[in-house]
Amino acid sequence: MKGYLDSKKRQKTDSEKFLPDVVSILDFSRGHIEVVLKQAESMEKMPREKKAQILRNRVVASLFFEPSTRTRLSFETAAQNLGARVVGFADAGVSSTSKGETLSDTIHIVENYADIIVMRHFLEGAARRAAEISKKPVINAGDGANQHPTQTLLDLYTIKKQFGKIDGIKIALLGDLKYGRTVHSLMYALAKFNGVTAYLISPDSLKMPKHIIDDNKSKLRIYETQQIEKYLSEVDVLYVTRIQKERFPDEIEYQKVKNAYIIDNAIVAKAKKGMKIMHPLPRVNEIAPEIDATGAALYFEQAANGIPVREALLSMMKDVRK
Amino acid sequence: MKKEIRINPIRSGTAIDHLQPGAAYKILEVLRLNEYAVTAGMNVESRKMGKKDIIFIEGKELTESEMSKIALIGKGATINTIRNSEIKNKSQLEYPKSVEGIMKCINPKCITNAEKIPTKFSIKTGPLEAKCRYCETRMGEQDIISSIKSD
Predict the structure, then answer these.
(1) Interchain contact, B135 vs A125, CB within 8 Å
(2) In A, which residues are within 8 Å of B114 by CB distance?
(3) ipTM for the complex?
(4) What is the mean pLDDT for each group of 10 consecutive residues in chain B (151 residues)?
(5) pTM for the complete prediction?
(6) If you write DSSP's letter for every residue of chain B in order, what string do you get?
(7) What domains does chain A contain, in order, with CATH numbers?
């Protein structure tokens, strides 16, 4: 009898066990992250024709209330690669928002048109709200300064692909660690893995917020410094972020810091052999163009990894029942 | 022997006792008790606490939402529900695990400040912290107290 019941009990597929929406990296367990990375890997290997069947006859809504180049193009390309039709807008100015429509109303309309909603919004928490009211799965493509979970997933995928693992990785986060949402999310995501060391390199005024360090210090080995060269001989990945001028109270302070954090061949020469440089892009001058042609540059590949990761997420969200 | 100052008890209503000094003022501000007879004692001597605040509200029993608000301001306080001069219910306030619709998010870019959505916060203690369900902004005790909405 037991055997009969067991055989009747259908095993859940990976996508059925997955989250109903992709809103915040804080919702992800290690298992969730690993499922996405595994699926992204299989997306890269899958023949184009087979891939184009996955979202055939499905509609993906791409709602960009705030302009974005890389993220929007990458999501729309991923959706089209899977055979989906893509509807939506690239700017809130051309949507009903400019006529005063609330986000809730927009979502109630769009959920009847689309099977999956990809959304970027300038208001923080907009993605959680959309996910709460939508019958269809919502993927957050950035909500203000809050979350951009697909960026974090593609960062992790890039590390995994390059080093074959995330456990035990030694990563330096460099630049604006105070306001940079990518490095905040990355800290939480890396803390789900084992034996990761994070070197936090920033000017004093742009240090990683204390609560983020406190939240993750039991899982990550954390070192803070202002000296870029201090730990370079130990680091596997140097994750560079842009330092924004507007974060500084005065121009002199900005100029001082800006020049202290430029990565060029002279810096790379002091680093551990095989160290890779990542950057969420766009960069301004924090990575010298001379790095681009060297083996240390991983940032363009990182951006390219946005496609398989977003294909993976879209393919996993297609059967979500909320 | 020092003579204790007594505040006249109420016949029916609520007594909020054992409040930390300073909490009564904030509670009166958020509860909006304009229509009720209210007596409040501030920095009253207390054997247990040294000094405490206490509030008596005649003719009113607190709603759940009012209790949540007070719980965030006056942890450890005792709520006595009084009917016909008898204490019908006595409970000690504990921090709630989450609160809905009683606080405003301090993040001006939060969706809850742009659209009419009830706010939702998860509450963590030691030290007290509220995290917005939507924008994930964290608020410390001072921000929590100043963002509790008065209805």
Answers:
(1) yes
(2) 123
(3) 0.89
(4) 62 94 89 90 92 95 89 89 92 91 95 95 93 96 86 60
(5) 0.89
(6) -PPPP-----SSEEEEEEEPTTHHHHHHHHHT-TTSEEEEEEEEEETTTEEEEEEEEET----HHHHHHHHHHSTT-EEEEEETTEEEEEEE----SEEESSB--S-TTBGGGTS----EEEEETTTTEEEETTT--EEEHHHHHHHBPP-
(7) 2-148+306-317 (3.40.50.1370), 149-304 (3.40.50.1370)
